[in-house]
Every structure is written in C-alpha cells, then in structure tokens.
Design brief:
The protein has about 290 residues and is an alpha/beta fold. The protein is about 25% helix and about 10% strand.
Length: about 290
C-alpha cells in the first residue's frame, strides 16, 4: 500500500487503514518539563498497535559534554535504523507519527517525521490534530503494548537536509534563517532552558506554534506560506535543540518547498550554537 503523498495524514484515513499490515504508528507524546508524561499517557491509552517513541532515548543521540550537537543531538543513523527495525518498521512500512497538540507541545511527531525522512523514508507522515483528532473521529484506545515482528530498515541518509553551525555562519545571500522559538526567547528577554539568551544574528522569528490552528490542526498551505513569509528563498530553520523547529520544516513542505537543500534543519540549533563562546549572539528584534 502507498499512502497519498503528503506530510500529513487525517484521522479518517488512519481509521480506515490502521489495521493494514504495512501501516506502523508511532506515539511521540512527550513533555520537556516531565519526561515521564508521554509514556504515562501512552500506557493509559494509545492508538491500537502504536509503539511509543521517546524523544530522549529513541529520537535523540547521546549528549556531548561540550554541548556540541545541542540538547537533542541527532541520533546515529545506524542506531536509529536498528531501533526502527526492532519495532517493526521496515523500508516498505507506511509510518504515521502522532503527539498531542492540546498540551501546547505538538512538535514531537514532526521530529519523528523529520528523522525518518532524513533516513530516506518517504512513506511517513504526521497525524493531523494528533491523538485528540483520533479520539474525536471515533478511534478506539488501547492500553496494550504491541509486540511487533522485527523488520529490516536500511537507512539512506539525506545529508542535504541538515545544516551545521559552520553552514549557518557561511549562509549565502538570499538564504533565510528562521528561528522557531517563542518571540520572547528569540529577543533574549527570557531563557528558561539554555545558558545564553538571544538568537543567531540575522535570523527572523517564526514561532513554530503558528503552524497549527487553535484546534491543533495544521493550517493550509496558503496560510503556511504567508506565515513563514519566505517565498522561494532557501531556508535554514532552528529552535532550541532541533525539535520544535521541525513543524516549520513540515509547514515549508506543505507550502511547496520539500525537505532538502532549500528547506534544511540546523539540527543542533541554539543550544549547539552557544556551545562555542566565539559565536555571536543577537538580542531584540531584527
């Protein structure tokens, strides 16, 4: 089975296909403030057959003492591929990732979506509206943890989807650098997580939360294009640690610019940028 080409999947589509043998579902619910919240929610009830994907242990690599790579470094491709295979995701799987936008942190599914695309897996999407949309559509909840049959996932890493700090420092004219954090963090007025406040000089602020409407649904392509205001310019997008930037990358794809050299993630993001004291920091609006 081949899913229609889109970075989003509707709850109606998933209701119809959730039991198809090639469909695999990842529950990505999480909370930065309490790492156990997502797993507790999963154990309390999830989409039947869904496997839990933990941001820290499954969707990130180990922290480096220097801080290089940021607070959520990219996982080793081989390690991530092995985990995917262990939970039954192979190269022929149709993968749907979901979280819970009603918590105000609906960016974890987009992180999983981006990681699978980075590994070269095209048949992956985010459930529009997340778990609440599944429930609202009449989807059943299960507390059973599945025992998927292991599969083989062979990665084909898409290096052109990633920008490094060196790439950001040498961005060519005409490339738009997008900061996806809340405006107060961008301006350097507050910094609840990282050691320095502010933003990368030259970046513009497009908060990730604007990609979703008040009900947790993704805004349509024309609204994404207007919100990001990037036109056809190549973009590099970052956040605090390479997680909440991913909704803006998905939004860019909805607006017609696929992941790749014109729609890249600075994976280490702000927490990687400030790990080197010589890198400049800006505050206020630009």
């Amino acid at each position: 089975m081949t899913k229609p080409s889109s970075p989003l999947t509707s709850a109606a589509w998933l209701l119809e296909h959730v039991n198809d043998p090639t469909v695999r579902v990842l529950d990505c619910r999480y909370a930065l403030s309490d790492p156990l919240v997502g797993r507790i929610a999963y154990l309390g009830g999830h989409i039947p057959g869904a496997v839990y994907a933990d941001l820290e242990t499954d969707l990130s690599g180990p922290l480096q003492e220097s801080g290089a790579g940021g607070r959520h470094p990219l996982p080793d491709p081989g390690t991530l591929a092995a985990w995917l295979g262990s939970v039954g995701i192979g190269n022929d799987s149709v993968v749907v990732c979901y979280d819970d936008p009603s918590t105000g942190q609906g960016f974890y599914a987009a992180r999983a979506w981006w990681l699978l695309r980075w590994l070269g897996h095209a048949q992956v999407s985010v459930l529009d509206g997340g778990y609440p949309a599944w429930v609202a559509a009449g989807g059943q909840s299960s507390a059973d943890e599945p025992g998927p049959v292991p599969a083989t996932f062979t990665p084909d890493v898409q290096t052109e989807m990633v920008a490094t700090a060196a790439d950001v420092q040498a961005l060519p004219p005409g490339t738009l650098l997008i900061d996806s954090r809340a405006p107060a963090r961008y301006r350097g007025e507050v910094e609840p997580i990282d050691a320095k406040a502010g933003h990368i000089p030259g970046a513009v602020n497009r908060e990730w939360a604007g990609a979703l409407d008040a009900g947790g649904q993704w805004r349509p392509a024309n609204e994404q294009a207007a919100r990001l205001d990037a036109g056809n310019a190549p973009t590099v997008t970052y956040c605090g640690s390479g997680v909440s930037a991913t909704p803006n990358l998905l939004a860019r794809e909805l607006a017609g610019v696929p992941l790749g050299p014109d729609n890249r993630l600075y994976a280490g993001s702000w927490s990687d940028w400030i790990s080197h004291d010589a890198r400049p920091v800006a505050t206020g609006d630009e």
